[in-house]
Amino acid sequence: MTKDDFKTLTNISPALTNEKLSKSLSDWFKDSVTFTHWEYVSDTGKGDSYLSEVIRIRVHGVATNGTDKHIQVVLKTIPKNVCRRLTFRSDEFFKNEIAFYERVLPVLLDFQATWNPKEPFDKYTRLFLAHCDGVNDVICLEDATLENYGSYALRQEGIDLDHCDVTVKTLAQYHALSFALKDQRPEQFSDIREEIFETYYHARLWDWYGRFWRRISGIAVDAVENEYPNTVYLEKVKQFAVPERYGDMIAAAKDSTHGVISHGDCWTNNFLYKYQEGRPVAAKIIDFQLTRCASPVLDLAFFIYACTDQELRDKHYGHLLKYYHDVLSNQIRDLGSDPEKVYSWDTFMGEIKKYSYFGLAFSFESTPFIVLAPEDAVNMDMEGEEKLNIEDFWQIGPFKTKEGRLREANNVVHAVDHGYI
Q1: What is the pLDDT of residues 207-226, one digit of tens each?
Q2: How far is it, in rounded angstroms, from Cα 389 to Cα 181?
Q3: CA 95, 142, 201, 372 torsion: positive or negative?
Q4: 73-130 confidence digits (pLDDT tens)
């Protein structure tokens, strides 16, 4: 790229006009700032994002007094490749996430500010700029690496208890905002839940997802068949991993009886961690493209099945459930509501029993991608401008290693042993 290429970002997205960037810089710095140029910082790894294209950049401007102002951001743009954009329905995911950042999260945070809790939820990345038109969508967020947050390095392995605790704490504090807002301002909560919509589990999406569901179900059955042949686990997974299960996922995703504005996609890639002396001390949530209004158990159960292994669950599963509910209850109380009234332990455990299958079924998709070696990541270069089926591209096969099969099969073992399926 030439020097002049860095004087505009319209070559990255037509939506990123100099005028729009100047306005965003002015809003961010609360001063009149004129965009001047941008710098490339880094790319992301192969396979890190399927629904968008992501780079890290610095956006520079000059204030009225002549001083340089700049912000380092993570820039997510809708895929330029038309086939990829249509096949993965990227416009819907961008629309949902932009609605979350622009019209949902601010309401939750404004409500929180009225109570000033001892430990407010602040484990998210702030929005710098967004644009949504279905073709040139953009989400630009502050770069959390500047606060020493980073991705979990050992994605292929289950995370340890320290990582679990900081992640569960962040989820609980985030979910508490919805419970308290819904309790005290039900109409306001109803308004924001209408801003987001279901992007993954809905009857309209079966034609899009059905072939891929059959593929990942077969991979799960294969893993159990190889590692636990002729057992109740194989019998149960064969009964569970059927096309009709998608209907149960739809039912779970739309049950808002105890619904919160959930994250929707709680796997390893969507948390960033801050470390002190090698130990995680905080976790931030990123990527709200699958956000929905549903039971918080959908987030928690998926996190447990997507991110932990059997050894950790054998030792600490009960602790994780209790720790989540303790943090949630304390936070709800700090936000002016009664946790016993809005989401008691008995209610929570009832939903754990009722909806943990959701986390297991969703992990059928996530686990193969989590254990996938970087060199085996799916190639997202697609030809043409026609919408295809996601199964044409996500053509993952059975696990190549015993470790991978056990990661999947042991999720089934845990769900069966606890009576979830």
Answers
A1: 999 999 999 999 999 999 99
A2: 39
A3: positive
A4: 999 999 888 888 999 999 999 999 999 999 999 999 999 999 999 999 999 999 999 9
Q: How far is Cα 165 from Cα 320, in angstroms, rounded to an integer? A: 7
Tell me the HSE value of 56 on the side-chain side, using a 13 A CA sphere.
Answer: 11
Walk across the sheet containing 53-63 and list its strands.
33-43, 53-63, 68-77, 138-142, 127-131
Q: Which residue's structure tokens are 């009832």? A: 350
CB-side exposure of 244: number of CA atoms within 13 Å? 3
Cα dihedral sign, 270-255-208-224: positive
The pairs formed by 107-114 with CB atoms below 8 angstroms and a separation of 24 or more are 107/181, 107/188, 107/191, 107/192, 108/177, 108/178, 108/181, 108/192, 108/261, 109/177, 111/177, 111/180, 111/181, 111/184, 111/185, 111/188, 111/335, 112/177, 112/335
**Which contiguous run of DSSP H or E holds residue 393?**
none
- Which tokens go with 102? 């622009």
Alpha-carbon torsion (117, 118, 124, 127), positive or negative: positive
